[in-house]
Every structure is written in C-alpha cells, then in structure tokens.
Design a protein that fits this description.
A 3-stranded antiparallel beta sheet has the order 1-3-2. The protein is mainly α and about 200 residues long. Keywords: Coiled coil.
Length: about 200
C-alpha cells in the first residue's frame, strides 16, 4: 500500500508542472521572438534603404557620366566638323596656289616676251657729246633729222643717257626705244650707210 502510494507520488512529481510558470515562460519566449523579429526587420530595412541610396547614387553618377560622355561626343563632333572645314579650305588654297603659280609662269613668259620685243626696238647711240642746252629727246630727234628721218617725240617710247664711267673719257651712250621696230631698223640702216659711229 505504501509502495503504491509512493509510486503515485513519484509519478505525480515527474508529470507535474506549474501552469503559472509555464505561462510566464511561454509569454516571455513569445515576446523575445517578436522583439528579435522586429529588430531583424529594422536592420534589414536599414540595409535595404542603404542599398537603395547606393543604387540612387550610382544612377546619379551614371547619369553624370552619360551627360559628360554626350558633351565629349558633341565636342568631338564639332572638332571633326571644324577639321573637315579646315581640310576643305586647305585643299582650296592648294588648288588656288597651283592656279596662281600657273598664271605667274604664263605672265612671266609673256613679260619676258614683251621685254624681248621691246628690246628689239632699242638702239644705243654712241659718240654724242653731252649738251646741257638740249634734252635727250631733242638730241635723238636731231640725230634722226641728220640721218634723213623725221622723228617726233611720240615716236620714242623712252630715251636715257647711261651713266658715264670714270675710266672712259668718251661721252656716255644714249639708249633709245622706238615705238615701232620699223623706225629702229630704219635708223640703223641709215646710220650704216652714212658711216655713223653709233651702234645698235
């Protein structure tokens, strides 16, 4: 009898629990889990916000980089356009320079031909003493009259007396350019016939 009673008491002791304590423990356990869950959510939310801010900053940075790249592309485009314009200008200048060089060569040739033609009208008259009372034009016209050719001032393109040389006692020669080569040829022919000392 006593053994059975003792066994029952042991069984009761093993299976007994305090409802108040269990309730308190359960309540505390639930509260702690909620607090932990709320703390985790707060921390996670902060991390998400930080990531969102980082993404926003990255987007802003990428936007700035995109704007900068666009500006650089615009600058490069303008530089390329300017380079093309300068290239065309240089090409035009080179072409114009070639044209001008060709024109200069032609003009130089024509000038040389004209000078040669003018030289063909020249006569150099020697042995005429310097007369301060007469102009060079008057002397040339007088020489023409002495040779039998009536000369006018309009027949002379230009006339000048060369500078005298100190070592040469002879009077400096007179260079005459006639307007027409026929006059020059006529003067030379008559001078030879009359044995003039003048030379062409």
């Amino acid at each position: 009898m006593q053994t059975n009673l003792l066994q029952k008491c042991c069984n009761i002791a093993e299976n007994w629990f305090c409802h108040t304590c269990v309730k308190s423990v359960s309540k505390n356990h639930a509260t702690t889990a909620a607090e932990l869950s709320e703390g985790s959510n707060t921390s996670l939310l902060a991390e998400v916000k930080k990531i969102a801010e980082d993404i926003k900053e990255v987007k802003i940075s990428l936007g700035k980089q995109s704007d900068l790249a666009f500006e650089n592309n615009e600058r490069l485009r303008k530089i390329e356009e300017l380079a093309l314009k300068q290239e065309k200008i240089i090409e035009n200048l080179v072409s114009e320079n070639k044209t001008l060089k060709s024109q200069i060569i032609i003009l130089e040739y024509k000038l040389n031909q004209a000078e040669q033609a003018q030289l063909a009208n020249n006569v150099e008259i020697r042995g005429i003493t310097v007369n301060p009372d007469k102009t060079t034009e008057g002397l040339v016209c007088s020489i023409g009259a002495a040779l039998g050719v009536k000369l006018y001032v309009e027949d002379l393109n230009f006339e000048e007396r060369k500078r005298s040389r100190r070592e040469d006692p002879r009077p400096p020669p007179i260079v005459v350019r006639f307007v027409r080569q026929t006059l020059r040829d006529e003067i030379i022919r008559l001078r030879k016939e009359y044995g003039s000392d003048s030379q062409s």
